[in-house]
Amino acid sequence: MMDGTTHLTRLVRRLERFAPLPAADRHAILALPVQIERIGRGRRLIDEGQQDHALLQLHSGYACRYGLLSDGQRQITGVYVAGDLIGLRSGDVPAASQTVSTLSDADVAKIPHAAIMDLAEDRVAIARALWNETILDANAACDWIVSLGRRDARGRVLALLQDLTIRSREAGLTIRDSLMLPLTQEEIGDATGLTSVHVNRTLMALQAEGMIDRIGRRVTLLTGRAAAASPALSA
Q1: N or C: which end of the chain has fewer CB within 10 A?
Q2: Distance (Å, rounded) from C-alpha 31 to C-alpha 78?
Q3: Which of 93, 126, 147 is the last residue of a domain?
Q4: pLDDT (0 to 100) of residue 233
Q5: Same domain, yes or no, for 161 and 102?
Q6: Residues 162 and 122 in one domain
Q7: What pLDDT, on the 0 to 100 scale, is given for residue 213?
Q8: DSSP letters of the chain?
Q9: Are 93 and 179 found together in one domain?
Q10: Do 30 and 100 reside in the same domain of the chain?
Q11: For residues 180, 185, 188 and 193, what is the CA-based torsion angle, rounded to 10 degrees?
């Protein structure tokens, strides 16, 4: 079993994606208190409006954030893959604006918000790295909005598959362009604003057009044609 230092090394790697941290900052992160939990699929990690007290890092699996309407309809607004930080906020904004649930079995590291914020107040490089994370999250949210607002059903589903495949590959969850899809067709619909029936038709159309290949829940992007059909959004 890995100890807390091993798990916190993953947080160091995450925060050093754009610039290395000073050695003293790395040691300070490795000394943070951390709790590791194995959580099953469909479990809530954060509840909307909850006064949560921990920064989460997904160490394996997938999760999503979403909002619920009064009639029970759900809109997924983002998907997390292993390595992503969840619930990063300052002590001045303690309540979660949306719910976060697992899409698969997942290992989750929980670090007290107060502890990480204390480090950020004292260490500029850590504060800058955390700020970079909030910018990336905001950029991803903007891309999600543009996709929902301006792409047709085919473009929305293909963009979602591309995003999940690329990020899963970077996280070591998949090989090349082949992905064991963590979302059901209903969940894809919640992410793209489509019914599950429309999602099914769209997936079949993408396969017929040679954009993807599907065997059960395994989806492979046929890279050249898929990329040409769904140009990347600019950040």
Answers
A1: N
A2: 30
A3: 147
A4: 43
A5: no
A6: no
A7: 95
A8: ---HHHHHHHHHHHHTSSSPPPHHHHHHHHTS--EEEEE-TT-EEE-TT-B--EEEEEEESEEEEEEE-TTS-EEEEEEEETT-EE----TTS-B-SSEEEESS-EEEEEEEHHHHHHHHHH-HHHHHHHHHHHHHHHHHHHHHHHHHHHS-HHHHHHHHHHHHHHHHHHTTSSBTTEEE--S-HHHHHHHHT--HHHHHHHHHHHHHTTSEEEETTEEEE-HHHHHHHSPPPP-
A9: no
A10: yes
A11: 170
Residue with tokens 């963009």: 159
Q: Write out residues in the chain with pLDDT < 70, as ranges.
A: 1-4, 90-94, 223-235
Residue 224 burial by Cβ neighbours in a 10 Å radius (0-12, 13-18, 19+): exposed
**Amino acid in position 22:** P
Q: Rounded distance, CA 25 to CA 31, Å?
A: 10
